[in-house]
């Protein structure tokens, strides 16, 4: 199905993709994304978007800018490589990729 490319492009493992697809028929997409964002690892012992936004930006998720949100989205693929406190250059490159992909998708 066409969603595989989307899942892969945001860095989901095949096991994570399978779990999301298993829930897809009965669970609204917003709920699936919310559940995922509340449990995913963002590096630095941060599990979930709330802890990650607090750790990296000292903000609540709803207070994040588009650039800050893109940083967090980029971290998911490889926190040990893309976290801003690990390698700012790689973090910025990954953030720019996320923003570019968002633009391509009309966001």
Description:
By secondary structure, the chain is mostly helical. It has helices spanning 3-9, 14-23, 29-37, 49-57, 66-75, 79-82, 88-104. α5 packs across α7 (88-104). The chain is globular and about 40 Å long. The two termini are 23 Å apart. The model is unreliable at 1-8 (pLDDT under 50).
Question: Pairing-aware structural class of the strands and helices?
Answer: mainly alpha
Total of DSSP H or I helical runs spanning 4+ residues = 7
Order of helices and strands: HHHHHHH
Q: Which band does the percent of strand residues land in? A: under 5%
Biggest sheet descriptor = none
Report the principal-axis shape: globular
Radius of gyration: 14 Å
Tally of extended strands? Answer: 0
Helix percentage: 55-70%
Low-confidence stretches are: 1-8
Q: Tell me the span between the first and last alpha carbons.
A: 23 Å
Mean pLDDT: 86
Which key phrases capture this entry?
mainly alpha; 62% helix; disordered N terminus; 107 residues; globular; 7 helices
Brief rundown of the structure:
62% of the residues lie in helices and 0% in strands. The protein is mostly helical and 107 residues long. 19% of the residues are buried.
SSE order and pairing:
Blueprint: H1 3-9, H2 14-23, H3 29-37, H4 49-57, H5 66-75, H6 79-82, H7 88-104
Helix pairs in contact: 5-7
């Amino acid at each position: 199905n066409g969603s595989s490319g989307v899942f892969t492009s945001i860095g989901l493992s095949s096991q994570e993709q399978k779990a999301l697809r298993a829930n897809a028929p009965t669970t609204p997409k917003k709920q699936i994304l919310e559940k995922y964002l509340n449990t995913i690892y963002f590096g630095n012992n941060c599990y979930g978007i709330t802890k990650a936004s607090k750790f990296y930006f000292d903000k609540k998720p709803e207070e994040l800018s588009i650039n800050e949100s893109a940083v967090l989205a980029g971290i998911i693929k490889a926190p040990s490589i893309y976290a801003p406190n690990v390698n700012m250059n790689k973090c910025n490159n990954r953030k720019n990729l996320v923003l570019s992909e968002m633009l391509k998708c009309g966001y």
